[in-house]
Design goal:
By secondary structure, this protein is of the alpha+beta class. The protein folds into two domains: 108 residues, Arc Repressor Mutant, subunit A (Orthogonal Bundle), CATH 1.10.10; 87 residues, no CATH class. The protein contains six helices and 13 strands. A five-stranded antiparallel beta sheet has the order 4-3-2-1-8, with no helix packed on it. Strands 9-10-11-12-13 form a five-stranded mixed beta sheet. One of its GO terms (molecular function) is DNA binding. Pfam families: Trans_reg_C.
Length: 269
């Protein structure tokens, strides 16, 4: 199902893509959870409680629900659609209640069905065979023949299964150890992966981290450190994917407990 939102962007619920009306290629894509959240509000335009949303989008899909997760994905949806000049797609009506913005026009896009003909086609008359016509008699296979068929079919299925197992073992990805390097200790202890250090300058990496940390209003505390990763599009002032983790250090465990933040449509200043 596809929806034109505010006349600015087309949302495809089958793959969570966002496409401009005059384009054929998708412009961006929502995460699975963000797409499920938007799809729920498109089908429930009435006033709904936060508990209803958490149950239908998170709990019923086997995900851990929390108001923090809901706020994070609401903010993500609003920022993503604001990029297409659609402001405040989901509004907070009152304490504990949310609603799809009634001021935004949502137009479902469906494939037009072929109209039925006014009169049904005339039935085709087929002459009945004469009594003297020959009748072909089909003799069912014997029990031994049926057993051979089943044996042959089972052998083919077993061969296919063995080929699939061999193919899976040959193409199985091995685990890769990710190394982290401490970039700075002031004002926050910041860790960077080797991939990030090879792809971006340290000064730009530290600057972008501070921008994200201040937007999330995260303070620096002793006994904690941050892991920061983002795609290259953040530097080019475009929409990109971003990951930030604030982890507590407990004895010999540097990542004993982490608060994780994901953004699939982050846009830097």
């Amino acid at each position: 199902m596809r929806y034109k939102i505010g006349g600015r962007v087309i949302y495809d619920a089958t793959d969570n893509t966002l496409t401009l009306p005059d384009c054929n290629e998708p412009d961006s894509q929502l995460s699975i959870t963000a797409g499920a959240l938007l799809y729920y509000f498109l089908h429930h335009t009435e006033l709904v409680s936060r508990n209803q949303v958490l149950k239908k989008v998170w709990d019923d899909n086997g995900l851990t629900s929390s108001n923090s997760n809901l706020n994070q994905y609401l903010s993500m949806l609003r920022k993503t659609l604001r990029h297409y000049d659609v402001d405040n797609i989901i509004v907070s009506v009152s304490r504990g209640f949310l609603q799809l913005n009634p001021d935004i026009v949502i137009e479902p896009l469906t494939i037009e069905s072929v109209p039925l003909t006014e009169t049904p086609p005339e039935p085709i008359s087929t002459p009945l065979p004469s009594i003297s016509s020959k009748v072909k008699v089909v003799i069912p296979p014997s029990g031994e023949t049926q057993a051979r068929y089943w044996y042959l079919a089972g052998s083919i299925l077993l061969s296919i299964a063995m080929l699939l197992v061999i193919f899976t073992l040959m193409n199985r990805n091995t685990l890769r150890v990710m190394n982290f390097t401490r970039i700075s200790a002031q004002p926050c202890e910041l860790l960077a992966s080797d991939e990030m250090l090879h792809s971006v300058a340290t000064a730009i990496y530290r600057k972008n981290f501070e921008v994200v940390r201040q937007r999330l209003n995260l303070a620096c505390h002793k006994g904690e450190h941050f892991v920061f990763f983002y795609s290259d599009r953040l530097e080019t002032n475009g929409l990109g994917r971003l990951f930030l983790a604030r982890c507590a250090i407990h004895e010999a465990q540097p990542f004993s407990y982490c608060d994780n933040y994901f953004y699939y449509a982050w846009k830097s200043q």
